[in-house]
Design a protein that fits this description.
mainly alpha; 78% helix
Length: 139
């Protein structure tokens, strides 16, 4: 591939001017100074550019397809990772909601069954303590 690239570059430099060629019979003098190619060599050189262009286009297409495939694989992996993180987050939220619900039910079960009884008992105890203290100061 490298040699064909070098030849392509060389031929591009060589073809800086309009190319000239002449079909001559054996023994005829040349109308200009240069290199004379036989018909097969001329055909190979003239068709080489199309061949190299096709090779280059194929290689570019292959590399673009390869990069596209790698990109699609990476994108697919990131989508899978995203979906896994969303599911993990959803499970964590469900777990926390269940924990909150369990704690709320536990608090309801442990709260005093009759708040007024405890309020009245506290009031009576406070009043009794105040009266006893007051009696001791009066005596």
């Amino acid at each position: 591939m490298l040699s064909s690239f070098i030849f392509l570059m060389w031929s591009s430099v060589a073809m800086a001017e309009d190319p000239k060629f002449s079909i001559m019979a054996e023994g005829e003098p040349s109308p200009f100074e240069g290199v004379l190619f036989d018909p097969e060599a001329t055909a190979i050189i003239m068709s080489g550019a199309d061949s190299w262009r096709s090779e280059c286009d194929l290689e570019i297409e292959f590399n673009l397809d390869k990069q596209g495939t790698q990109y699609n694989l990476q994108l697919s992996n990131e989508k899978i990772r995203y979906d896994a993180l969303v599911q993990e987050n959803q499970l964590l939220i469900e777990k926390k909601d269940l924990e909150i619900q369990t704690l709320q039910e536990t608090l309801k079960k442990k709260s005093p069954f009759n708040k007024w009884v405890w309020f009245a008992a506290g009031g009576i105890a406070g009043t009794s303590a105040t009266v006893l203290i007051a009696k001791q100061f009066i005596e």
